[in-house]
Design goal:
Strand content: 35-45%
Order of helices and strands: EHEEEEHEEEEEEEEEEHHEEEEEEE
Number of strands: 22
Radius of gyration: 21 Å
Distance between the termini: 35 Å
Structural class: mainly beta
Number of domains: 2
């Protein structure tokens, strides 16, 4: 099982000890998708004021050799202001996770919503706060993506253990390649808001990718894993622009020895760096602090020169050089590229394109 925190990522593999060793087997870079993965969870209100309704949507992909299999996507009810802000303190309520297993939306599984209580900030205040921290409340919403059947696990003595598992048709619990669980944390402040980054398109080889070859926001969700990538003809005389998304195979299979093809999502500085000051950090530090923004790149075939790129620095500001290069795989076929833009205040946006390797 893999536990993912949206807005900062934490993965706990079933055999965690492998990841704690100083040496061990080589693992694929996180940017290379070969299994069931959750790439992002976006909330429409990264900072959600008391009384608001927050909408969440998930981008996921099944990049395993068994892609096309049935996958369950489920969300928990919201968990408000748990003790000490610990996400696993929410596990003490078994009813919430019983509902997660029993109640799912087959018609709109990548979406959920919840109301923010009017007293989410005031009820957690224990007298005057002498620190520089801005008063806040926090909500956790948990999610699970399972290439099998979700099941409620028996209680254990480990208070940090996620109470939901994923089993195959024989009843065997599945591991990290077939089950991803995690949570999204949504903070609430009085008078402090934040918007998501804005991605308007995609560039590949220095040229804009024409619609509908690029997906944005909800348009990407049907491609998240339940539907195959859409094939196209590299030599179609009626659509000559498609040839730009066709690249030759590389015997070095996505390594830096391959030819690099420049690409990046189209992100407008003025739309995305929408608030110059990170007001929460500025209050804590007593000085002006800008928003930090970065992009994670993912592919299900091939590799990248730099899978993570800086978009906006808290001190130096905007970075126009936020793109990277794609290295083709050795096997012909379709290759998806995802760009997920983040900010340090819970904001997120994504875009994707499909390439043809031949």
């Amino acid at each position: 099982m893999r536990i993912v925190m949206s807005g900062g990522v934490m993965r706990l593999a079933t055999f965690l000890s492998l990841f704690l060793l100083g040496c061990g087997p080589d693992f694929d870079p996180p940017s290379e998708l070969h299994s069931l993965r959750v790439l992002a969870v976006q909330k429409d209100l990264p900072y959600a004021p008391p009384g608001a309704t927050v909408n969440l949507q998930m981008l996921w992909q099944d990049a395993s050799p068994l892609a096309g299999r049935e996958v369950q996507v489920a969300w928990s009810p919201p968990c408000y202001d748990p003790p000490a802000d610990l996400y696993y303190a929410c596990f003490s309520d078994p009813n919430a996770f019983g509902d997660m297993v029993a109640v799912q939306d087959p018609g709109n599984p990548e979406h959920t919503s919840f109301p923010v209580p009017l007293d989410i900030i005031s009820r957690r205040m224990m007298g005057a706060d002498a620190s520089n921290n801005a008063p806040y409340g926090v909500t956790y919403v948990f999610f699970a993506v399972c290439a099998g059947e979700l099941t409620l696990l028996p209680p254990t003595s480990d208070a940090t253990s996620f109470p939901v598992g994923c089993k195959d048709t024989t009843g065997k619990l599945l591991g990290a390649d077939d089950f991803v669980a995690g949570y999204s944390s949504i903070y609430s402040f009085d008078g402090i808001s934040n918007n998501n980054p804005v991605i308007k398109g995609f560039e590949f080889r220095g040229q804009p990718v024409a619609d509908p070859a690029v997906c944005l926001k909800d348009d990407c969700l049907p491609l998240g894993g339940s539907a195959p990538a859409v094939d196209f003809d590299c030599d179609d005389p009626e659509h000559p622009e498609q040839s730009a998304r066709c690249v030759p195979t590389c015997a070095d299979d996505g390594d830096p020895a391959c030819t690099g093809y420049a690409f990046r999502p189209t992100i407008d500085k003025h739309d995305s760096a929408n608030q110059d000051i990170d007001e929460v950090s500025a209050k804590q530090l007593g000085r002006t602090v800008g928003e930090q923004m970065w992009i994670d790149y993912y592919t299900d075939a091939g590799g990248f020169k730099s899978p993570v790129r800086l978009l906006n620095d808290a001190t130096n500001g905007w970075n126009d050089d936020y793109g990277t290069e794609f290295y083709a795989p050795k096997t012909p076929g379709l290759s998806r590229i995802w760009a997920v833009a983040h900010d340090n205040r819970g904001g997120m946006a994504w875009s994707g394109i499909t390439l043809k390797v031949r």
